[in-house]
Amino acid sequence: MFVGVGLGAYAAGIFHLMTHAFFKALLFLAAGSVMHALHGELDIYKMGGLRKQLPVTFWTFLLATIAIAGIPPFAGFFSKDEILWNAFSKHLAGVPHGWNVALYTLGLLTAGMTAFYMFRAVLLAFFGASRMDPEVEAHVHESPRVMTTPLIVLAVLSIVGGFVGVPHVLGGGGRFGAWLAPLLGGEAAAEHYPPQLELTLMVLSVGVAVVGILLALLFYRQRTELPARVVAAMPRLHRVVWNKYYVDQLNDWAVVNPVKRVSTNFLWGFVDTWIIDGAVNGVAWLAKACGRVFARMQTGRIYTYATFILFGALILLGIAFWRG
Amino acid sequence: MSFRLISLIIFSPAAFAVALLFVRREKEELLRRIALGGSLLTFVLSLPLYWLYRPTLESVESLWLRETSLHWIEAWGVRYAVGVDGISLFLVLLTTFLTPLCVLASWRYIKDRVKAYLISFLLLEAAMLGTFCALDLFLFYVFWEAMLVPMYLIIGVWGGPRRIYAAVKFFIYTMVGSVLMLAAILVTYFSLPESSRTFDLFQWYRMAIAPELQVWCFLAFALAFAIKVPMWPFHTWLPDAHVEAPTAGSVILAGVLLKMGTYGFVRFAMPLFPEAALKFAPLFAGLAVIGIVYGALVSLAQKDVKKLVAYSSVSHLGFVMLGLFAFNLQGSSGAVLQMVNHGLSTGALFLLVGVLYERRHTRMIADFGGLARVMPAFSAIFMIVALSSIGLPGTNGFIGEFLVLLGAFERWLPLTVVAATGVILAACYMLWMVQRVFFGAVTHEENKALPDLNLREWAYLLPIVVLIFWIGIFPNTFLGKMGPSLDHWLTQIKPAAVALLHGVAR
Questions:
Q1: pTM for this one?
Q2: Which ipTM was obtained for this model?
Q3: Helix locations, chain A, DSSP H
């Protein structure tokens, strides 16, 4: 989406925003349905074989996965492809075409990875033997209608939602872009590329998605020992990725913990308690101390007072002599 | 206004306090009912003020709802003069609105010396109302000081373990500022020609006070009010007083008493000494911003919910001060609205903390967790109030904070950028606390069977929630009435600004 908007291909961006809403919302809701069935279980390594027990959830989840992978004619295909095509063909002033190719390649690879990891989730959760805790497994049940109905509605939209934006090259009218044109002021189409190129790229992107799916099948259905071997081959990369590139840790280390520490130990523990309140209590202490000292003069004994008077008189006399 | 409605409002709580004297102290339930009835009656009496007050931009006279003033101490020119304008109107309503809720909140919490407690509370209400309505500086000072005594007793007698320290600190700290203000009042009074010496506020507005004198008088007034607000670094009495005070005491302290400080700036310090106010504006705007960020950061460090809410007041009141020292309509109306908002939201937070304390006798965040499962209604209300305190759009806090930032942005751009981080930090300390107290698993066995809100608690929480949304959605109910007064307020200060700029140019 951001690639589309970043390129100024606003219609493509908004189009993808819409189709994305269909299948991503569906994925979240279907995942929620799985969690509901499994009593809050989130770990896909503790699922497996759910396809039988949760048929509606399974089918809708699968359809959304196909849509997000960009397989035609599902919704994700049209919108994602339009963005990729824009990434390839839309020139920004002063940017060499090499950047377009790089951007396109990145998008293509990401699309392939999306297909891979989404099918991985489907395969681990819904296929194969069950890895559920026996206690959880005993209670597995399909979700009630109130939860499955939205899944079905979104699944239908994930299938047909892309048809509002079938591109010209496939004989469609690109109606979504046309509909937004009054708002966005119509974009200069990249006319100077032959339609064959656009079609070739389209086939390429579908091909990459299919490769992603096949790889997922290979890894998680055929040769299930492969993932462990890949991890063993690249332990360091795996650790970095497993920890989400350490972004959370970096944030904690660079922002959260210093703020907490400064607030607690310095601002509150030191400035507030010792400096400011220290001054306040210090004034009070000073007043009390003065009181205590002066109170000692009020002994009630005549000879003490007489001594003070004597000293006072001597001092006054001394001043008088010294000045006089 | 020939009918003395305002006086009636001020003195009806006092009258009920006197009435309580004649009820035997053992009849606690009756005492509570009379106090509740009295404070409710005061609220009902104060409501018509909203409709009676019809300001127009054409006449300055219409900006005030005044009673004919009476001689009080003729020899010194002291008069009994009371009235409200678009600024004090809402603070009066806030006071009369919060007091019955506080009486309800004290129903079971206060078990000891109920009679004395209720009498203190009603006298406190009378003094607060008097402070907001007084239009004679002498009268104002009398009410201002009168307010201290019942509050001192409420903290010192019915407070927590360190109540004596907190009460004495509160009393002396406030007193130090007040005495300086008294000195400034007298200095200004004696600077008037002997024949026309008066404490009448409107006369004082009209006279030109020499700039050198303004500086000293402004600083004396400002110190008294800054302690009350409290502005950083005069705030350390506040967490102690709040934590030790009983629930209702904290509610009034945060809800109304802190507003006395900001109100003092609006009504007295700034329009009486406009040139000095403008001269020191950078200082006060700076202190306000320090307060915003500092208060928020220190809130983040707190382990006690009540102390967290107390420190958050330092931050919130910083926004009010920043809005006032923006010297424009957005800033000042945001500030006055935010005074009301803070009274509602922070008042409600203290009430909610009180609900928790009554059940568990602790306020430490670590002693809770997962309460949303046990007390769903309580948690929902707490969440609404917390979000309003953060300033979520749709709630009162958003309107106030947004207007303040809008106004301040125009005058203090870099400072306002820093102040805006306070909004983010507010979300941090508030939501983090909410997360630790309400979400996750129930970690303490004792919390598993806590009862949810009872009818009495609903009765004092729901009205505040209604107002939170009302102000958030229809702010014009409030802004519309305060606008003309603030317009006029700005004209009182702006000429000084022009003069000051000319002075610089020359």
A1: 0.84
A2: 0.77
A3: 2-6, 10-37, 50-53, 55-69, 75-89, 97-126, 134-138, 145-160, 175-184, 195-217, 226-233, 235-242, 247-251, 257-261, 277-297, 302-323
